[in-house]
Amino acid sequence: MIPKSMNARVAIASFAAASAGLSMALISLGRLSLMIAVMVVLLGSKPKSLQNVSWQSLWTPRLILVILAVFAGSLWWTTAPQDQAMEALGKYGKLLLIPALLLLLKSRQEALLVLAIFLGFQVFSLLSSWLLYFHVPVFWATGKHAKEFFAVFATYLDQGIMSAVVAALFWHLKSLAPNRTLFYGAIAVSLLALGSVFIVFVGRTGQLVGLVMVALAVFWALPRRWRLVAIAIPPLIAFMAYNLGAVPQRFLTAESEVSSYMEKPAATTSTGIRLYFWKSSLEVMAQNPLAGSGAGSWTTQYNKNESLKNPDFEALKAASNPHQEFLLWGVQLGVGGILLLLAFLAAVRQDFLEMDESIARAGQSVLAALVVSCLFNSSIYDAHIGSFFCLSLGVLLAYGIHAGTAPKR
Q1: Domain coordinates of the chain in residue numbers?
Q2: DSSP 8-state symbol, 315
Q3: pLDDT, mean over the chain
Q4: What is the dihedral of CA 344, 347, 351, 353, to 10 degrees?
Q5: Residue 345 contacts residue 367 (beta carbons within 8 Å)
Q6: Could you tell me if 200 and 134 are in contact, meaning their C-beta atoms sit under 8 angstroms apart?
Q7: pLDDT higher than threshold 80 for residue 259
Q8: Are 367 and 73 in contact (CB under 8 A)?
Q9: How far apart are alpha carbons 223 and 220 in whole angstroms?
Q10: How much is the pLDDT for 409?
Q11: What pTM does this model have?
């Protein structure tokens, strides 16, 4: 499993994969190291050695380059201050982590090692959260509310989403285990991670992602003629929980907040803020639906619109976002930006469909989690959870491209 020679290329990829979900300082260092390694490889390789490599058959790297080119081009017409526009471009630069891992990992053996390290550190974060939940001191916890919300390095919102993803990864990748002990160990970790989503963390998005992960697992486990039944699983679970009084309190709070917002629209609650931001984003999009307002312009445009409605409006700080990735792209790049994001998601899914069944299902689960997360948060734009998703997809694609294909059931 471990390559005979742990060269710098594989070591850096391993460090970057291990950093996913850890402290922001380690994530930033891992990203920087990864990009430097890619530059060294590109500058030190002969042009012919970069031709006809397996990862060039993927659509994902191409879409990422197109996305970054479009965001860079929007700097010509952005309404945001130049520093904020460049900061936004840099935030989307994390998408380069995906092709970077594809470029650095050149064999199945290398990719498997990095995948194992990635999963191992996710187990470390998961067990640390459970220790915090049982009030066991965890001196390496750096999260602001680690003692209160049991999130070791990130927020409880991010940690809940990541735990749901980890549950899906271990469930679908258990077939890669070399022996029965690790096979059942993977199942145990999957259940432990799913349990943390609904017991340890209070993030509503993470719990929704957890339901979607369960629905997908059931969908693939059923015979084809019964798979549509899986679509009804999340609403069925929600209905049963509601009637049994087992709905998490924050979901009941959300219901109350939505009702309150419908009666009197105001950004005074967590749900109300989101709904108000979404409504305002649509208003901004309507002003420039084709080209958008440019990279990093959401805060500028929102503040401008709100100040016209209310001169006493307290402007949002720089680099704020609408807590919805699709609308964020729509404001910055117009309707074409939303289509570009959808094209990226479709490209990732298509690439996974061509891979081995276990990787295909794991990758599509991560992608589904990203989509759900983007509906309620700006998850690609966000530094922490965005890096986690990019590293997750990069590691899985890197392994999948070298693992071959298998018949899909």
Answers
A1: 8-250+327-403
A2: P
A3: 86
A4: 110
A5: yes
A6: no
A7: no
A8: no
A9: 8
A10: 41
A11: 0.90
Max CA distance (Å), the chain: 66
Please list, in sequence order, all residues whose beta carbon lies within 8 angstroms of the beta carbon of residue 82, skipping any fewer than 6 positions away. 75
Closest CA to 129 of 177, 198, 67, 62: 198
CB 353 within 8 A of CB 360: yes
Q: What 3-state class would DSSP assign to 379?
A: coil
CA distance linking residue 336 with residue 289, whole number of Å: 8
Residue written as token pair 């790297």 = 61
pLDDT (tens digit, 9 = 90+) per residue, 159-202?
Answer: 999 999 999 999 999 999 999 999 999 999 999 999 999 899 98
Q: Is the model's pLDDT at 222 over the cut of 70?
A: yes
Q: Alpha-carbon torsion 333, 279, 248, 235, what sign?
A: negative
Contacts of the segment 3-8: beta carbons below 8 A, 24+ positions apart = 3/107, 3/109, 3/110, 3/113, 8/37
Structure tokens at 309: 């409605």
Smallest CA-to-CA distance from 9 within 31, 47, 41, 32 is with 41
- Please tell me the distance from the alpha carbon of residue 132 to that of residue 130, in angstroms, as a whole number: 5
Cα–Cα distance list, 314 to 31, 79, 234, 386 (Å)? 35, 19, 39, 28
Amino acid at 48: K
Sign of the CA dihedral with 97 first, then 108, 60, and 228 last: negative
Cα(270)–Cα(371) distance, rounded to whole angstroms? Answer: 20
- Residues 77-112 have pLDDT tens digits of 999 999 999 999 999 999 999 999 999 998 999 999
Q: What digits encode the pLDDT tens for the residues 21-38?
A: 888 899 999 999 999 999
**Does residue 12 carry a pLDDT above 70?**
yes
Residues 6 or more apart whose CB falls under 8 angstroms from that of 171 comprise 186, 187, 190, 213, 217
3-class secondary-structure state, position 406: coil
Average pLDDT value for residue range 396-405: 86
User: Do residues 218 and 231 touch, judged by C-beta distance below 8 A?
Assistant: no
Neighbours of 368 (CB within 10 A): 19
- Phi then psi for residue 132, to 5 deg, are -60, -40
Average pLDDT of span 306-312 = 81
CA nearest to 112, candidates 403, 406, 349, 351: 403
User: Is the pLDDT at 146 greater than 90, yes or no?
Assistant: no
